[in-house]
């Protein structure tokens, strides 16, 4: 029983990381109605930036904040220079651009930082007071960081004029322009926030899986499954879906299929959701009258 509870809690910890990436995917989907297949590689690249800053002598939390800010700017620049010119282009062309971004970030990270596996420090001491026999300090800390990110984003979008403008621009760009909202700027800010969230997720997962250019490949797949389960157009649903996937992946991978086939759990979840309930648990079902 203790082993089951441990696997359940460990699944919640990894699910928090999947929830962060799923949240970033949903934010970009709401703004552009496209899936950013490069989200994982952008998070990995941001984590390498944090690692470089730490190696240069900066304290962890200073490097953390600096990386989040750099990632925000980097993602905003990508939206302005690469994604915005693809507006109103065919869907297949946009998908190819996203795949191209994935390959570029992966290759540049390997070129700049190498392909050898590196250790990434955890900000939470192993003997911290909140560590338990069931969950390590990093697992507890990762969940706490994820919940803080969700709370901050909820407060931003719910209670600030800029957040309300970003929500309006994502839901109805035409009406937003009519009331004076700069939709292009709101979309760029949305991409920046998604990049910052991805950076946080990367820095939380790196101490667990270690740091290398391939580290976010599986995480992105699990996060995509979480976003689909919760609802690809619902941020709260994406967070819930991320936690669900983390728990299912850990329990099924441990007690049913084994660790070698854990990645197949995400694929089965994706296919199952698309067949049974494409809108997800909390997504909107859109009906078009013809």
UniProtKB/TrEMBL annotation:
Keyword annotations: Amino-acid transport, Cell membrane, Membrane, Transmembrane, Transmembrane helix, Transport
Superkingdom field: Bacteria
Membrane-related topology note: Multi-pass membrane protein
Short name of one Pfam family: BPD_transp_2
Molecular function GO terms recorded: transmembrane transporter activity
CDD domains linked: TM_PBP1_LivH_like
Subcellular compartments: Cell membrane
GO cellular component, one term: plasma membrane
GO annotation, biological process: amino acid transport
Residues that span the membrane, as ranges: 6-28, 60-82, 94-117, 137-157, 186-209, 239-257, 263-283
Family listed: Belongs to the binding-protein-dependent transport system permease family. LivHM subfamily.
Protein name in UniProt: Amino acid/amide ABC transporter membrane protein 1 (HAAT family)
């Amino acid at each position: 029983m203790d082993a089951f509870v441990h696997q359940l809690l460990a699944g919640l910890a990894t699910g928090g990381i999947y929830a962060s990436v799923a949240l970033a995917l949903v934010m970009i989907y709401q703004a552009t109605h496209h899936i950013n297949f490069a989200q994982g590689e952008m998070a990995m690249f941001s984590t390498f930036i944090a690692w470089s800053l730490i190696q240069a002598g900066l304290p962890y939390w200073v490097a953390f904040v600096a990386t989040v800010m750099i990632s925000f700017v980097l993602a905003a620049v990508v939206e302005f220079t690469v994604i915005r010119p693809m507006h109103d282009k065919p869907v297949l062309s946009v998908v190819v651009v996203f795949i191209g971004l994935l390959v570029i970030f992966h290759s540049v990270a390997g070129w700049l930082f190498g392909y050898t596996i590196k250790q990434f420090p955890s900000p939470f001491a192993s003997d911290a007071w909140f560590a338990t026999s069931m969950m390590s300090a990093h697992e507890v800390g990762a969940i706490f960081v994820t919940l803080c990110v969700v709370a901050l984003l909820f407060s931003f979008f719910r209670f600030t004029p800029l957040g309300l403008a970003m929500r309006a621009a994502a839901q109805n760009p035409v009406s937003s322009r009519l009331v004076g909202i700069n939709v292009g700027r709101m979309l760029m800010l949305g991409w920046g926030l998604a990049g910052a969230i991805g950076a946080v997720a990367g820095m939380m997962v790196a101490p667990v899986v270690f740091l290398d250019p391939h580290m976010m490949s599986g995480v992105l797949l699990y996060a995509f499954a979480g976003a689909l389960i919760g609802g690809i157009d619902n941020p709260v649903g994406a967070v819930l879906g991320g936690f669900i996937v983390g728990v299912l992946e850990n329990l099924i991978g441990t007690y049913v299929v084994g660790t070698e086939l854990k990645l197949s759990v995400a694929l089965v979840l994706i296919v199952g959701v698309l067949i049974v309930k494409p809108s997800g648990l909390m997504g909107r079902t859109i009906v078009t009258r013809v």
